[in-house]
Amino acid sequence: MGGQALEIIEYSTRTALAEGVSAALAAALTQDLNTTGRSTLAVAGGTTPAPIFDLLSQEQLDWANVEVMASDERWVPTGNERSNAKLIRAHLLQGPAANAGFIPFYQEGLTPEQGAAHLSARLQNGPSVILLGMGEDMHTASLFPATEGLEAGLAADAPACVVMRPDSQPEARISLSARLINAAGAKHLAIFGEGKRDALQRAATISPEKAPISAVLPNLKVHWAK
Ligand SMILES: O=C1O[C@H](COP(=O)(O)O)[C@@H](O)[C@H](O)[C@H]1O
Q1: pLDDT value at residue 165
Q2: DSSP 97
Q3: Fewer beta carbons within 10 angstroms: which end of the chain, N or C?
Q4: Does residue 6 lie within any of the structural domains?
Q5: Are 62 and 30 in contact (CB under 8 A)?
Q6: Total domain count for the chain?
Q7: Is 63 within a domain?
Q8: What is the pTM of this model?
Q9: Structural domain harbouring 141
């Protein structure tokens, strides 16, 4: 496998990364709003993006015409500490950005499969702007290596959303498929630490089945800080 060229924007601090990524997302949203009057933003959950959300939420954008969703969700109620929706509500849908719409993935009373089917019907166009995260195991969104459901999530004709039940995780997940992620006009990845940078560089030489992040590398803008 030849490997894919990676352009990594390095920042001297995590704060500088948050400023840079927030500005890049705001610029991509502004471009959409100026050209079509609307935009859709998907964002990672987990431990990395809260400082980016805090800054982005304060941008003076036409948030009423922006719809926000997670790149993936743990199948837990919104009040649960592990809910990505809870993180997004607490850090992104605040201040001016409180005017944005929000598309929740978790639906009380539905199985993950039912939830994914509903979302796939609703999200045919997918997000225009996306902020991804990545684990050291090279998962992105909730496309986890060597997990049932990954083949469907990587397929060229994948539905918008797939269900994943990674052995390493305590609950089922719903993830945007690689097809939908790659359809976004602006794709950003924010990662911290040497371990994730090394993993990303390794992933560029490995198949998506073993390193799902490698399925979304084309046109991906990578932001890294120690
Ligand atoms: O489980 C998840 O993991 C990834 C990476 O999270 P981090 O805590 O290592 O930053 C995240 O991008 C994804 O949205 C989340 O659900």
Answers
A1: 96
A2: G
A3: N
A4: no
A5: no
A6: 1
A7: yes
A8: 0.97
A9: 11-225
> Look-up: residue for tokens 């992620």?
181
Rounded to 5 degrees, φ, ψ at 25 are -65, -40
Provide the greatest CA pair distance for the chain. Answer: 46
Q: What CATH number is given to the structural domain containing 44?
A: 3.40.50.1360
Atom of ligand 1 nearest to the CA of 191: 10
Distance 35 CA to ligand 1 centre (A): 31
| Interval between CA 220 and ligand 1 midpoint (Å) | 17
Classify residue 4: in a domain, yes or no. Answer: no
For residue range 152-188, list pLDDT tens digits in order: 999 999 999 999 999 999 999 999 999 999 999 999 9
**Residue 5 lies inside a defined structural domain of this protein:** no
Question: Is the shortest distance between the CB of 73 and ligand 1 below 6 Å?
Answer: no
CA distances from 21 to 41, 56, 166 (A): 13, 9, 29
Give the number of C-alpha atoms closer than 13 A to the C-alpha of residue 132, restricted to the C-beta side.
33
Selection from 95, 92, 71 nearest residue 188 by Cα: 71
Residue type at position 124: Q
